[in-house]
Write a structure and sequence with these properties.
Elements (H helix, E strand, L loop, with lengths): L5 H7 L3 E3 L8 E3 L9 H18 L4 H7 L4 H8 L7 H11 L3 H5 L11 H15 L3 H4 L3
Antiparallel strand pairs: 1-2
Helix pairs in contact: 3-4
Length: about 140
């Protein structure tokens, strides 16, 4: 038995082809509630979240950058969507700022949290409420 064809997998997963100028081959993505976004748009929309989280914690960029092993200029490139983040760099920034990657990812990909905007918002509100509970409160009976 051969299994599903490439096209059948695309359909089964609910993906649509997008021609992203940053990628030399077609890629397949889910829409974000009806919209397909290019990688550059996603990077541009996620970058401000780092500055917001840093400002909320009152950590100057000049102090945060060396904590990440970066110069101020290099870290500034992340906050301004000039440089692309690796997963390990994203996790390191989240560790140092004591934030969840959800704070960065949800605003640019809410469709990963629900079938529609209302469901995604409900799921995110639940995640935020759970984050405020202490370990004892979340312990199973």
């Amino acid at each position: 038995m051969a299994g599903r064809s490439f096209e059948e997998w695309i359909s089964h997963l609910g993906l649509q082809q997008i021609d992203d100028p940053q990628i030399d081959k077609p890629v397949y993505r889910k829409t974000s509630f009806g919209e397909l976004e290019l990688n550059a748009e996603i990077e541009k929309r996620s970058a401000p979240a780092f500055a917001i989280a840093r400002d909320r914690r009152k950590i100057p960029r000049s102090k945060l950058a060396p904590m990440l092993g970066l110069s101020d200029q290099v870290y500034n490139r992340y906050e301004n969507a000039v440089s692309r983040l690796t997963v390990s760099r994203l996790l390191h920034i989240c560790e140092v700022l004591s934030i969840s990657p959800v704070e960065i990812l949800y605003p640019v990909a809410p469709h990963l949290w629900g079938e529609d905007q209302a469901e995604a918002e409900t799921c995110m509100a639940s995640v935020e409420k759970l984050a405020n509970f202490d370990g004892l409160m979340l312990k199973p009976f």
